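Section handout 9: paired folding examples.
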Amino acid sequence: MININGIGFGDGPGLFGLISALFPFIFIAILAFIAFTLVRSILQWNHNNKQPVLTVEARVATKRTKVSHHHSASDESMHSHSTDTSYFVTFEVESGDRIEFRISGSEYGQLVEGDMGKLNFQGTRYLGFARHRVVSYP
């Protein structure tokens, strides 16, 4: 005689029984992670709002990108691929300290390592960079 509960069907001791028993814990863990991320973002936003807006002399020290690949498949005939690129620039201020900010792709393309100018930021929030113009004579 075959016991179908023994191979994981239903609420028995098998795989599906284990999954149905763990589902509430997994659901709560996912909700806790989302809540933690949301609270952390709000606290960072609030911290930045309390910081003074600073404008300092800085040099573009380095630039980097981070490409994230996303893949989803709804069924065997439908596959979706997408990528997301994040742009980061590290600035070096007069004291020698370095600060990295995530910036937009359009601003990233306009900056060159070694550019000098005025960095404008508030806490960890990048507000802009005004490059010094170099005047060349013929």
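Moving on to protein 2 of 2.
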Amino acid sequence: MHLALIRKTLGFDEIRAFYDASFPQLFAALQDSGRRLVGAPLGITYGTPGHLIDLAVALPLDAPLGSVQPVVGAILPAARTATLVVQGDYEQLAAAHAHLRQWVLEQGLNPARWPGSST
């Protein structure tokens, strides 16, 4: 999946402001690029959230996007994935991440790669 994204490492109390600041920049880059949005906006967490979270706010696109800082083009590779929707306080993300990992292991699945670890 082709993406336009803005990535930052921040505290949980900064997430809402990061989303609020990122969306106008992402949609401006989308409009200037002539690309089309092909799905819902998403957040991507890199690594395992702790006191800080390495987070990208992203838009799925129909074609590659060149980088125009702070917006960069990226590719989310095809993969079988497990997802979890978290509603409520962003500080729940670390516990949600641990819950999802436990669920994956309970299903007998062997992740080829888990963010923030070698397994």
